[in-house]
Queue: 2 jobs
Job 1
Amino acid sequence: NGELLSWQGDLSSVFSPVCVRNGEQPEPVLLGQTPLLDAQAALQALDAAVSAYDLGRGPWPTMPVLERIQHVETFLELMQQKRDDVIRLLMWEIGKPYKDAAKEFDRTSDYIRDTIDALKQQDRDASHFVIEQGTLGKIRRVPVGVALCMGPFNYPLNETFTTLIPALIMGNTVIFKPAKYGVLLIRPLLQAFRDSFPPGVINVIYGRGRETVGVLMESGKVDLFAFIGTNKGASDLKKMHPKPHRLRAVLGLDAKNPAIVMADADMKRTVSECVAGALSFNGQRCTALKILFVHRSRVDEFVQQFVSAVEALPIGMPWQEGVAITPLPEPGKTDFLQQLVDDACQQGARICNQSGGEHCATLFRPAVLYPVTAAMRVYDEEQFGPVIPIVPFDDIQQAIDYVIHSNFGQQLSLFGQNPQQLGELVDRFSNQVGRININSQCQRGPDSFPFNGRKDSAEGTLSVIDALRQFSTPTVVAAKYQ
Ligand code: G3H
């Protein structure tokens, strides 16, 4: 991306969600600027990726696997040197608390290392022949083509790299558009990209969706679309591809993961998992618990303990020790959350915690809403923020119906102690969601576990091993020997 250094066109300003008081009004801090590419510049990046791939004949897709791995190892080494810069930007750009920002960086390094190890193992396995029914076969995995990788603002490094790295290491060439918020933190890594990969193999683009990724999709030259974000974003872009049947999509999308708390749940553990599950990084995780169904016989106890735990969460700036609730990076987010809270309150829910829902500039105090009913927006709509609806139930069927009729199907959590009941629910839900968590919050990790979802929540599966498959395609060489 050397050419971007000499970019003469429009620039876009990047503001921090962290505000400073300037007179009466809190104002966001200006962090920097990024190029606002036009369609022509985006197409140049595409041409670079297309030529480097060269219909599968380029040096990168044809490079021996172990050699390609060395490039990724070099990148990992150079990336390590930028650890502090990236962590600082994660705090400033998206308001991620220091501890979580450091975890995001280290998890990404581990992910790259594990990917390298898994591919080395896969390469060893691929040297074996398969013998079946008189046929001698050898299966090799080849790249898919030109990949467009786009990540979300909440994990702008980690989730993006869970597609970017497998795409590269499997021999695809890549166009990478960083998340809208969490864009500057890629900057310290640009030199590492340049020093680790041949020209054209990875191309970073910035700018408005329509003029950049929209144009790339319309060109029909994108073979693989790896996108973590909203359903709308993914489907709008997919529709632009002139031959959607030739586009492989790996998508991580919206979710509304429920927790179901049974009458026999261990309350202390349940509350602690539900608080972490609903409010880690302000609830801005696709895997966050976004609605809590609690058996009526335990709901008062649950609400009381949950509220105490929420009221104890420290609110502040990302660099403050132990902080839990921090500024929200998406403009207009506090208004949206306020609307969800107002709607629920107008229809009979109350805010149970002290100062819940109060907000100033980009800080929003978590709002615990109870009792929530199906008539309220927050029952079905994804909040992706610190608003927690609690629904009492008398009959477990209400929670089962919720899962079955939901448009989403990423994960759910079950809290209870009766193995038979848990087992029956696991059987009921196995074809409804990608993961069922027993007595623990929803989450993606460990990264060796398949991460996917049903219905509108995902397409394809990610994990260290699954991603290697997702970003490549098997070719069989077969010979009859009888
Ligand atoms: O935002 C969606 C992420 O995949 C959540 O990942 O469960 O590790 O926080 P996590």
Job 2
Amino acid sequence: MTADIIDGKAFAAKVREQVAGHVTRLKEDHGITPGLAVVLVGEDPASQVYVRSKGKQTVEVGMNSYEHKLEVDTSEADLLALIDQLNNDPAVHGILVQLPLPGHLNEDLVINSIDPAKDVDGFHISNVGLLGTGQKSMVPCTPLGCLMMLRDHHGSISGMNAVVIGRSNIVGKPMAQLLLNDSASVTIAHSRTKDLPDVVRRADIVVAAVGRPEMVPGDWIKEGATVIDVGINRIDAPEKGEGKTRLVGDVHFESAAKVAGAITPVPGGVGPMTIACLLANTVTACCRANG
Ligand code: GUN
């Protein structure tokens, strides 16, 4: 069997097109331009790349982008003051504080100081609770993108066996909750899980979100299963030349694609969907704020 490739890049382009359509209507019919504020503390190179990309795509769909770049030694009080200002700014409909934060800042405190209605990351404790009880909430972008691809591929995932490998607050836990809300039967696996290969072999849906390059080999995958690879890992690629690197997922793509029914590639799978869902969440927040 050779798996269908789930093209996240093309799917994300469609989502952005829909978002741009909503933005146009909000502007023309209501005179409102959705605005997304992104806060970056420090100069982590990967975070800088993400933040630049978020800002660029925000503008491309017609929304306002407000970037706040703060020094690495910014005090918690100053960061909280900025969030308070953004919470009270009617032009700002979504607020994202790029993680990880420098060690002297309390991540939970900072995230929970964001107005839950503007929490486009869906990380605020009240959004986590709303999602956990199946109520309307802001949904974390990466798991939302994964769910959209699964729904698109399967129609319904009701009754399917799903395994989520990884239990992070950003991906693993909300992913499991979303799958459960769609009536999948869900197992969360992690580094202490016994007989992980057998747990994965029972799954119709595998979501890998551990951050370990090519950790899941093809012989763990059930024939015909759908594999969603959240990992983005940079590894050495001496075959491309000295000092060269390449991106790989948490799944060993070549071997998994021989048994899976469908699989997301890395790059070009889950990655592009994350920012597209951030833009969609910002429009959602804007619509809810304006009735
Ligand atoms: N760092 C890595 N992923 C994310 C994300 O989805 N949101 C935020 N705020 N920071 C991140």
